[in-house]
Specification:
heterodimer; A: 314 residues; mainly alpha; two-stranded antiparallel ribbon; 14 helices; B: 240 residues; alpha/beta; 6-stranded mixed sheet; 4-stranded antiparallel sheet; 10 helices; 38% helix
Chain lengths: 314, 240
Amino acid sequence: MSVRVRIWGLHLAVLLGLWALQQVLPPYHANNLARIMVLAVFAMGYNIAFGYTGLLSLGHALFFAAGMYGAGLAVWQLEWAALPALALGLLAGGVAAGLVGLLALRTAGVSFMIVTLMFAQAGYLAILYFGRVTGGDEGFVVEAAGRQLFGADLATDGPRAVASLALFAVAMLANLVLTGSPFGRVMVAMRENEERSRMLGYNPFAVKLVALVISGVYSGIAGAAYGVMFGYVGANFATVQYSILPLLYVLLGGLGTVLGPLLGAVLMFYLVDFASSLTSAYLMVVGVALVVLVLFAPLGVLGTLRERWLKWLP
Amino acid sequence: MVAMILQARGLSHHFGGLQAVDAVDFELAKGEVHALIGPNGAGKTTLVNLLSGRIRAQAGQITLGGRDITALPAHLRVRSGIAYTFQITSIYQRLSVFANVALACQSHGTRELRTAVAEALELVGLQAMAELPAGTLSYGHQRLLELAMGLALKPKVLILDEPTQGLAAGEIKRFKALIGILVPDISVLLIEHNMEVVMDLADRITVLNFGRVLAHGAPAAIKANRAVQAAYLGADRAET
């Protein structure tokens, strides 16, 4: 079996498995799964910047929120339908990432973390400041008219499950194609050795900017889908917590792997779910899990698997 | 007159108070192997960094095939035909040997990636190691991989910064044979400490000392030059 067949086989099997899960899970968990898949798309975007290109950003909440507000406000203020609103959200994420990247990519390492964090905080504060347009910290509910996609009502469980799986599938397959492409190789080259890459004729700034924009597009569509599918847009999605979440998913699931973000999102979602049923200090459980992870498996679950056994895993 | 592929006029660069390269004129003829030698700290690496664009010249002008490239950033100089191999081996340790060379090949839009990579690896004799992670290669093989990446860029000018440093005798022999194959299609600028390699390969030699050109000319003339002997061996020993 060639590596290509194995890779595509595995990823298609995962999609099939997700579809099967949607059929058999009770509604509570099926709904969780829809949420997880949308968040996994966000984490995949984060992984493109961090896992593949080596850009440790603390500002991705801004791109997620740009998508969410781009779509949500289009429905609320402009009475757009769901499809163009989602497209606007996707675009907003990419544009936000491009603008931030133009400035933030002049820095690297810790400075890059701080600059992206500051931009995201500025975005969060802007949402609060322009409360009359954005709904401020109360946010707003996405009206039913803006949640109709191809004649299906995304407010109901069935269509929402299909939509979340479709979004996840497209995002994952695009991620797979990207990482197997020449440009995917250049992204990894930038992460591994920027100076060498420059001396092979690649413009580090341009490569990183493109990677960040792709990452922003993923974050944007994830934010837009989250708002439209679950019907609520709020400023808490622009807080630093939503920059940290995809980082945690990626660290847990596997740095620089296509399936890592999904696995990380599933594990973290249910870890939080489980821990909060035990104690109100559930974040401490999450914290301990992460410390253990960083100490003993810094590449995450799939990253470690790939290093030890599954060398072909993309 | 021989055509010049790479020319520098009045090139200068200082780090703080240290004049690392001081008004240096330099010419690389088409198809020649030109060695750049000089004692430690003479400014050799700074000079090739200026030529390759890794650092910007504070004064002077550089032309490649008659075109002014002084203001061109490093990655565009690479694309216009100047390849640089690092003194301290700088490969992608965690990527496969194939991926390392593929990155060099695809940088100039090679369509037949597999063929191009195989060709470059075959030149240096690493074709059997394509699937290994580059970091697992021996030091000598890593140097050869670095060279393969330089060659895969299909450069007009290949700058080799201490290519034989740390290589075994057999590997040095292989390296010399390889350079013999490359010229005159590629012009080579060679920084080298190993005088045997320099004398065997170089058509011309430029000697730097304290950031200035001390001498340049054919190997025999350089060998006989008393100023060069003094700079290298210390004046008192040169006189004996």
